[in-house]
Amino acid sequence: MRFDFMGALQQLGRSLMLPIAVLPIAGLLLRMGQPDLLDIAFIAQAGNAIFEHLPLIFAIGVAVGIADDSNGAAGLAGAIGYLVITAVLEALNPDINMGVLAGIIAGVVAGLWYNRCKNIALPDYLAFFAGRRFIPIVTGLTALALGWGLGWVWPPVQHAIDQSGQWMIDSGELGLFVYGALNRLLIITGLHHVLNSLVWFVFGNYEGATGDLHRFFAGDPNAGSFMTGFFPVMMFGLPAAALAMYHTAARDQRARVGGMLFSLALTAFLTGITEPLEFTFIFLAPALYAVHAVLTGVSMALMSWLGVKLGFTFSAGLFDYLLSYGLSSRGWLLIPVGLLYAVLYYMIFRWAIVRFDLKTPGREPVTRTAAPEEGEVQARGPAFVTALGGGDNLTSVGACTTRLRLVVQDVEQIDEAALKGLGARGVLRLKGGHLQVVMGPIADGVAEDIRTALRARGKPVEAPDIARTMAPSAEQERSGQSALKDADLSRWLEALGGVNNLRRSELVALSRVRLEISELSRLDHDTLSSLGAAGVQRIGDHCLHLILGEQAWIVAQQLQAEIQRDGR
């Protein structure tokens, strides 16, 4: 099977969001406990504890993020993997310091093992360690081998990373410009999270604290350069761009788009979440977005040249500006530079939109499908499922801070107009059926609504609730059949290769039994047909659907009961 490199990076970028989400509270506690604020040592230490254990937090968070159903067993395995890797490295070479990267590697290994082996069947005498209990064991063994290999391989890799980071730091304004421009350009693919993780959590060292973000809050006077330049763009530049889009909208459309643009601009100003606003023009005007990327790079270089040092725990918004101001150097210069950037962005955007007739919000042709009816708000999940081509078209549903991250069977079934009517700011079609829908801060809630809607339709994309998926419908209850005869149950088990060949049984779509099988070659298709199976649909190497009609729920329920009785 061909390895989907881009898809793997997308999944990694999404999984990084969970551990990054703990940083705001860590920064808040650390900052509030400082002597110039509350001067309460235990509050500062509480925040510092999170920063000191970031690698372990990343190991747990990345593992849970990669796991198909975000199960806690993956997180436990990630923690074990990280502890084993670091212990082995410490024994082989105490000078090796992988930091957050060790946590990310352990999390990836644990997540991949979980997805591959969460339903593994073992011989009866090892049945206790089957399924999810197997994941921490195999992850620990893998981490042992990885730790030994990294002990020999990592020193030159670490040297190369240190040199790259040092180049970006030592090259001053040039390195900052390159980073700032790349950061914005990589938003299109969602890979900016990977770059940010290196810059904010790996590059540089100050009294054991690594990465620009950690070093800034640890008191490094030279840290903050890779965060400072985002403040003028996110707090002033992009809100001014939103104002330009409002002023260039058709007069009869300003009332319609004004509220949306205002909310996007306010979100950017207060929190530094800018992707929803950027996606209003990223595809309509790629050249304008390129200018935005260049201006971001210039802002990074300019703020460094002026000697400004600011930091953030989440993003470059007002909240983080106020939080980090006490640790900043010349932080007041943000105001004049920000106002300059506001004027610059407003003039450039207004000129470009009018000059090239860009179809920014309020200038595009109005369609009746552009907005959902009021009653549809309560059915957000089903509406998104429909717009995404239906439940059968969805393979994986996840989210990062601002985007739905999906895997679909056929991207051509996606209704972009309906998605935008439901609030999407942009849709990215990637290779291998990967799809990203930019939603803003509500992305995670929308993803959960979609998963809920899919479970209600009998097609979960995460671990299903067996009690719910096996519940019979009212029509099936009225049929009066509640159990298989012992003879029929024995025939079912024999036709399926015995109970030790079964891993899991569940009802899907009310008329099918989804089975996870150890060896498909042990199936007796003739007997299955004689038992009433209208068809056997192979889904993968170890999965199939039995099309049974009304008796599906009974068969699914009793087969699962036999599997559980057998200790699997």
From TrEMBL:
Cellular component aspect of the GO annotation: organelle inner membrane; plasma membrane
Primary location recorded for the protein, binned into one broad class: membrane
PTS EIIB type-1 domain residues: 378-460
Domain PTS EIIC type-1: 3-365
GO molecular function, one term: N-acetylglucosamine transmembrane transporter activity
CDD domains to which the protein is assigned, alphabetical: PTS_IIB_glc
InterPro entries cross-referenced by the UniProt entry: Glu_permease_IIB (IPR036878), PTrfase_EIIB_Cys (IPR018113), PTS_EIIC (IPR003352), PTS_EIIC_1 (IPR013013), PTS_Glucose_EIICBA (IPR050429), PTS_IIB_1 (IPR001996), PTS_IIBC_nag (IPR010974)
Record Pfam families: PTS_EIIB (PF00367), PTS_EIIC (PF02378)
Membrane topology: Multi-pass membrane protein
Cellular location(s): Cell membrane
Active-site residues annotated for this sequence: C400 (phosphocysteine intermediate)
An example Gene Ontology biological process: phosphoenolpyruvate-dependent sugar phosphotransferase system
UniProt superkingdom: Bacteria
Membrane-spanning residues: 12-30, 42-66, 72-89, 96-114, 134-155, 223-245, 257-273, 279-303, 310-327, 333-353
Keywords for this protein: Cell membrane, Kinase, Membrane, Phosphotransferase system, Sugar transport, Transferase, Transmembrane, Transmembrane helix, Transport
Name under which the protein is recorded: PTS system N-acetylglucosamine-specific EIICBA component
Native organism: Kushneria phyllosphaerae
